[in-house]
Amino acid sequence: MENKNILKEMLKDLIPCIEGKWFVADGALLGLMRTGDLLDFDNDIDIYILPQTKINWDKLPNKYKHHKDYMCYKIYNGEDTVPSENEWLRFLAYKRTCYEYYGYNRAELTKSISKDYRKQKVDRKYPGLWIDIFVLVYDNKHNLYRIPYHWNGSEFYFTATECDGMHDNRLGFDIILPKNPKQVLERIYGSNWIIEDKDYQY
Question: What are the sequence ranges of the domains in the chain?
């Protein structure tokens, strides 16, 4: 089965577990708005939930596992093989996304985070295909929803209107997209988001 078909099946199984507002964004939204389908080269789906939204893990089919990774929850098929990965490089990649390290070069970042590695590292438990669930926080000052600590906090946000979502069934079942999806994509990927540019966008 193609990766994107496996991801669609995973999303379809996850949706009944979501209790509250949510929407699909990032690469999945990019594919849907470009071609009406997921991207061929993507290996995950990113969804965003509002602070009051809950995931009823008891409803998730038994074959799926979930756990909290660095910035989000991961849902994956627990029967698939987990690749071996350098955990230090994963930790480094995560810390690079945190706003307090924005602008650090590699040497400065390595020096700053090495003391925290043993206590804060999270071992990879998920295989090659997964769904990321990001829990947004509300920014009272700007009336926006954001990912906590994201390095691109000034640009990576969703308005309250966008978070209200809109229904879409281009995947063959009902999903939620942010309202004004083209505006969201332009903010995340730039004004040429409609043109495929893997080097820039991934």
Answer: 3-80+127-201, 84-123
Q: Distance (Å, rounded) from C-alpha 133 to C-alpha 67?
A: 10
Helices 106-113 and 87-96 cross at an angle (nearest 10°) of: 110
DSSP per residue, 113-158: HGGGHHHH-------S-EEEEEE-EEETTTTEEE-TTBTTTTT-EE
Task: Report the alpha-carbon distance of residue 6 to residue 66 in Å, rounded.
Answer: 16
CATH code of 3-80+127-201, in short, is 3.30.460
- Structure-block tokens of residue 149: 């600590």
Q: How confident is the model at residue 41 (pLDDT cuts 50, 70, 90)?
A: confident
pLDDT, tens digit (0-9, with 9 covering 90-100), for 125-153:
999 999 999 999 998 888 899 887 665 55
In the 8-state DSSP scheme, what is residue 160?
Answer: H
Q: Which one-letter amino acid corresponds to residue 78?
A: G
Specify the pairing of strand 130-135 against strand 44-49.
parallel
Strands 22-25 and 64-68: unpaired
Indicate the pTM of the whole model: 0.89
DSSP 8-state secondary structure symbol assigned to residue 82: P
β-pair type (44-49, 22-25): antiparallel
> How many angstroms separate the CA atoms of 25 and 5, rounded?
17
